[in-house]
Amino acid sequence: MEYVNQRVAQEAAKDPSDIYTGLVTPLNIILVIITLYTTYLLYKPSPPATLPREPPATVFRTFTPRTLLPYNGTNGMPVYLAVRGRVFDVTSGRNFYGPGGPYENFAGRDATRGLAFHSFAEDMLTKDLDGPLDNLEGLGPEEYESLQGWEERFLSKYMVVGKLVAQSDA
Fold this sequence. Notes:
Blueprint: H1 2-13, H2 18-21, H3 26-43, E1 61-63, H4 65-68, E2 80-83, E3 86-89, H5 94-97, H6 112-116, H7 141-157, E4 159-164
């Protein structure tokens, strides 16, 4: 019991400022810094949210085979193609319809006959750009059904940006 009384007397005789030196240890300093940094991260103001930019508005316009031709994805131009008189903006599918894609010969052209026959051949494309549009003569029921499937696919995925008319109707 004597030991306990001695210890109590020693602690009572200590300078009151010595109590705080026991709190200021390297570990306690690190813990306070971590706590302050975490609090800062939790409550710091966040930057204002930015909205994505809208693509520029596309005006519905009338195309002829000759005015549609530049829209083949080269020189920074968008990729358009026509199916049954409707011109679709297929730029979002540039890897398919643009330069180097499997359907690149349809870009900037009337793709109706080629899509109906599932053919990429050049003879499926309109050769006379100033002549009448393809009247789809020679298409059977299977080709019309195929063409309708393509048209539905384009309508669901791509925006119609215009209509295709013959040069004489422009």
